[in-house]
Amino acid sequence: MDPINTLYPEEQERLQQTFQEIERQRSDIGPVYRGQDYVEQLLEAKREETRQRLDLLDNDPYFGRLDFQEDGKAAPLPLYIGKRGLDLKETAAPYVIDWRAPVASLFYSFTGGDAPVTYEAPDGTIQGEIYRKRNLSIRDKTLGRVVDSYERGGDNIGLNDEFLLYKLGDKKDNRLRDIVSTIQAEQDLIIRAPRYKALIIQGAAGSGKTTVALHRLAFLLYQYQQQIRAERMVIFAPNTMFLDYISGVLPELGVGNVKQTTFAEWALDRLNDNVRMAQGTVEGNVWFSLEGTRPPIDDETPGRFKGSLAFKSWLDGKLKDFEENFLTDQPFEAWEGRVLPGSMIREWFEVEYRHYPLAARRERLSARINRWLEMQLTNIGDPKIRKDKSKTGKQRLRTYVNKLPKADALSFYQSIFASGAEGSIPKKVLSGTQPYLKKGFVQPEDLAALVWIHYVFNGAENLAFDHVVVDEAQDVSPFQIALLNTFMNEPSFTILGDLAQGIHAYRGVQRWDELSAVFDEEHNSYHVLKQSYRSTLEIIEFANRILPHTDTGLPPAEPVFRSGDPVDVVRLEREDEKVPFIRSFIDDNQERGMRTIAIIGRKDQECTSLHEEMVRAGIEANLISEGQASYRGGITVVPVYLAKGLEFDAVLVANANDRQYALTPQDAKLLYVGCTRALHQLTLYYYGEETGLLSS
Ligand SMILES: Nc1ncnc2c1ncn2[C@@H]1O[C@H](COP(=O)(O)OP(=O)(O)OP(=O)(O)O)[C@@H](O)[C@H]1O
């Protein structure tokens, strides 16, 4: 008998019982309370949480079953694993187990074999044996596929992969999805890693880094529910469109309120929007220029220098000097003959207020001198003379305070770049920075230093994070990570990236040890994800040909065995063949059921013109440009640097010739990003000479 047919009725019955239990519990909660009683209102909040949990369960109650016999127990027990847990009303026995519970880790770590297995429970290690691992697909309350990926004593060949492949074959829309039903063992290790770690993860394109990070947040909230709050967790991602793209995953996992932001947005907020950003001409014209004309990247490249820990140390020295020389020994003379000695002012500043940050010390000092002035005035009996002296004293106090240096981040930063920096800051950095600062503008790479100075001057404003996720971390600097670390009592980070996609290497890292240098050994934890889940075997093997040209020394990504169509590289004879070619690419792929299709260009301008030509030819598509807040799916024209992090069913890389993608590591990284965005179909076209990056 077909195994599906034997498994199905049993699971169908269990599913019906689950729905009945959910319904029982829902009806026990009763209607929504809308009255004024405070205690009832508090209880209502709890009831609402339960209602929401039951709603989530009702849609999609579980996805897996594991028959596990704990040592010492008489028989195996079927454990049903879902996105949320459900205990039986009557006995409180677990009926559906939350995927984050310790025992559920067996579902992910188990890859077959009859050997005993263990998991870590709060009371210690539990050992036992697995008799069955079953995947169940339930959609819209209906049981779909039921597949046993392991049965004790059975032949169990490759079934583990079958369910994964079935999931990976799906066509995508405009949102990233959760992967709770198919988390792989190497991913699970990262998701369940202890809280106080700085996990640094090098993951191949499509290895699930972003997805894993989001699942890790859901896990941490479950595991440390008394100690961690969602609103004290933060995800840093490269741009707002990417944030929009990933915004569905946490709600699907039942997690709300986690702050999702970009580093620039967060930093500007810290600086109270007191600085103006220069418009991104340098990045576009210099670092993304064509024909291999980009400058080489080294430690004196402005972005890398200003993002280094060495720059931070140098800055710390300057901040210390600034604080030490903040006061001259100038006394304050309120009026002729009434003098507050400089030594007294210094005593207040250095001893009494030494625990306050500089800006607060400055403020307290001026308030203290003012109080001293008031005291002197009370000693004057004649009201007319008092009024007169008060006027003089207050005016002189204003002048005195105005002469104290300002504890303002931008002014301080401008001053250190304006004078005396020649010996310590490389010429390249000075010339790439001074012209902007003189006009009052800053660049993205200045923000870490500015927030740091602001922090030293003003203190941390109660901004402690419980956990920080940094996605696309190859584009961030050690200074940024060190800065974020100061907002936490103990490091708790998930830092993920791929050096082969380091298209902003002029301000990011070239090796992961640059970031790990921020943390002590005890907190450092480095992981590699080599397996790539997004793309077909053919696409991954094709992209792997580009990898050596990135000069990162990274090993090739490992595909899961999901085969698709071969990758096409098509030479067009003339430029005017381009639009008909794009049209047929779109039509073919739409006919094959592809929902998201991207035409990936090299630069913004090229994409704008391509989009205009397509629209003139009657092809509807969305153009993605810098600063865009959302990704709509469908047909998209996008410059490659903005496609990073996204994925599409079918990708057409536009004009992959040797001018657009020269034989340089930077261009190799761009082309690698472009090609690895495709799930099922990848095509490249060019006219002129094919890029040399495709030759192995
Ligand atoms: N265990 C898994 N089961 C099912 N799908 C998975 C799994 N892991 C990853 N995926 C899918 O692979 C795709 C890539 O995931 P994700 O975007 O998180 O990878 P990434 O490493 O951040 O990629 P990139 O660096 O290229 O942006 C997504 O569609 C995700 O759903």
UniProtKB/TrEMBL annotation:
Enumerate the InterPro entries for this protein. Answer: DNA_helicase_UvrD-like_C, DNA_helicase_UvrD/REP, P-loop_NTPase, UvrD-like_ATP-bd, UvrD-like_helicase_C
| Catalytic reaction(s) noted | ATP + H2O = ADP + phosphate + H(+); Couples ATP hydrolysis with the unwinding of duplex DNA by translocating in the 3'-5' direction
Query: Which GO BP annotation is one of this protein's?
Result: recombinational repair
Q: Which residues form the UvrD-like helicase ATP-binding domain?
A: 182-536
Record EC number: 5.6.2.4
GO molecular function per UniProt: 3'-5' DNA helicase activity; ATP binding; ATP hydrolysis activity; DNA binding
Q: Might you report a single GO cellular component term? A: cytosol
Any one Pfam family match given in the protein's UniProt record, by short name: UvrD_C
Where would you find the membrane-spanning parts of this chain?
none
In which residues is ATP bound?
A: G203, A204, A205, G206, S207, G208, K209, T210
Keywords, sorted A to Z: ATP-binding, Helicase, Hydrolase, Isomerase, Nucleotide-binding
- The answer on whether this UniProt entry bears the keyword Hydrolase reads yes
Protein name in UniProt = DNA 3'-5' helicase
Organism phylogeny = Bacteria, Bacillati, Bacillota, Bacilli, Bacillales
